From TrEMBL:
Bilayer-spanning residue ranges: 12-34, 40-59, 68-88, 118-136, 142-165
SUPFAM superfamilies associated with the record: ATPase domain of HSP90 chaperone/DNA topoisomerase II/histidine kinase
Protein name: histidine kinase
Gene3D superfamilies membership: 1.20.5.1930, Histidine kinase-like ATPase, C-terminal domain (3.30.565.10)
Key word Ribosomal protein present: no
Pfam families: HATPase_c (PF02518), HisKA_3 (PF07730)
InterPro entries: HATPase_C_sf, HATPase_dom, Sensor_HK_TwoCompSys, Sig_transdc_His_kin_sub3_dim/P
Keyword Disulfide bond: no
Domain of life: Bacteria
E.C. code: 2.7.13.3
Start and end residues of each Histidine kinase/HSP90-like ATPase domain: 291-382
Chain ranges of the Signal transduction histidine kinase subgroup 3 dimerisation and phosphoacceptor domain: 183-246
Length: 389
């Protein structure tokens, strides 16, 4: 599973959308009052609904995971407004530019982010809302029919933009997956050709020395070196198999996870360790132990670089609620990285994500609370969080 970084809304686009929608609503209100005299109850109702539909359109960037709800709410308000206009007296003045712009933004977002079936349903409903609104609200004159055709064309344009963005995301994701696969295979080849070759040489020479010094006092020490080399060779081969085939099941061992986390945290001031009971006896692959070390070490390094004023840093390592993942969380109360001067590097988080993705884990990093930053890694535990005795 690919790692993810918490997305942030693009402030420039958000500000532009707020200004445009607010300006259109203000222009519509002023035009009705100054140029067309007193506003009727129906026209005022359409204006209020248009303002209400603009709200979910603006919130779609802040809450992308709720795109379906926001788009559905905006489309429902528009359809209700059109139904009320059809049942009541048609308004005399054709209007609704802010509402149509808001519906375009919601339709494009739905086609961009949502699953195909749900996006298709919302696209059809938004098309009905946009194309039928002029006729239902303002009658069936030639001018109204012209506006209906224009709004239908705008609906088609919003769908096209959403699909273009969707296709761009799919291409970028495919390119990212392909790049990671190439990097994984390249790393596997290097491990196999270089590291495994040299470790094999060490093991063979140690075995030869054991035969020569079979009766000497160094025999036990040589046997220990041979055993350590064989274990290292086995770990490298398991890692190569995992890199070549991410679905390869890595044997679990009892890793000294507690000492690994303590070593990564060191004796840094302000760091609080929260380790779940029984963590030292957790059945875990050695590759996961090394990844935990990397996550903690890199996260604390980033705190020193980007949040030097942090006074409280909490490192939490515990099995997740599903008992199938190990949660590694590093939280600090310093300034958010977006407010600090970034270093010229910036590849630590990317490298951490690549390493976690190779283990089929998840990584998220983003703002936490009013003042702080959190890095959360979830690493799979083969067979669940079984603790050895």
């Amino acid at each position: 599973m690919l790692s993810t970084i918490t997305p942030r809304p693009v402030r420039g686009l958000v500000i532009a959308e707020v200004v445009i929608l607010a300006g259109l609503n203000l222009e519509q209100l002023v035009r009705r009052i100054i140029l067309h005299g007193p506003t009727t109850a129906g026209e005022l109702f359409y204006f209020v609904v248009g303002v209400m539909i603009a709200v979910p359109a603006l919130l779609r960037r802040r809450f992308p995971e709720r795109t379906a709800t926001l788009a559905g709410a905006g489309i429902a308000l528009s359809l209700i407004c059109s139904a009320a206009g059809f049942l009541g007296k048609p308004a005399a003045q054709i209007d609704g530019d802010p509402e149509i712009l808001a519906l375009m933004l919601l339709t494009g977002a739905a086609c961009h982010r949502l699953p195909r079936s749900l996006a298709g349903v919302l696209a059809v409903l938004s098309g009905l809302a946009m194309a039928a609104a002029p006729v239902l609200r303002y009658g069936d004159s030639s001018a109204v029919l012209t506006v209906a055709v224009l709004w239908a064309l705008l609906w088609g344009g919003s769908i096209m933009v959403g699909l273009i963005l969707r296709d761009g995301d799919a291409r970028r994701e495919a390119a990212l997956v392909a790049a990671r696969e190439r990097e994984r295979l390249e790393l596997a080849r290097e491990l196999h050709d270089l590291v495994a070759h040299h470790i094999t040489g060490v093991v063979v020479r140690t075995q030869a020395a054991g035969v020569i010094l079979a009766d000497g006092p160094e025999h036990d020490l040589i046997k220990e070196i041979e055993h350590a080399g064989a274990e290292a060779l086995g770990a490298v081969r398991r890692l190569v198999m995992m890199l070549r085939d991410p679905g390869h099941a890595t044997p679990v061992v009892t890793g000294d996870l507690v000492k690994t986390v303590e070593a990564a945290a060191g004796e840094q001031e302000g760091v609080t360790l929260r380790l779940a009971p029984g963590l030292a006896n957790l059945a875990i692959a050695p590759e996961t132990v090394s990844t935990v070390h990397r996550v903690v070490l890199e996260s604390l390094t980033n705190v020193r670089k980007h949040a030097a004023d942090a006074r409280a840093i909490t490192v939490t390592v515990e099995p997740a609620e599903d008992r199938r993942h190990l949660r590694v969380e590093v939280v600090n109360d310093g300034l958010r990285p977006s407010r600090t001067r970034r270093s010229a590097g910036g590849y630590g988080l990317i490298g951490m994500g690549e390493r976690i993705a190779a283990l089929d884990g998840r990584l998220s990093a983003g703002e936490h609370g009013e003042r702080g930053w959190r890095v959360l890694a979830e690493l799979p535990l083969p067979g669940g969080a079984a603790v050895t005795r």
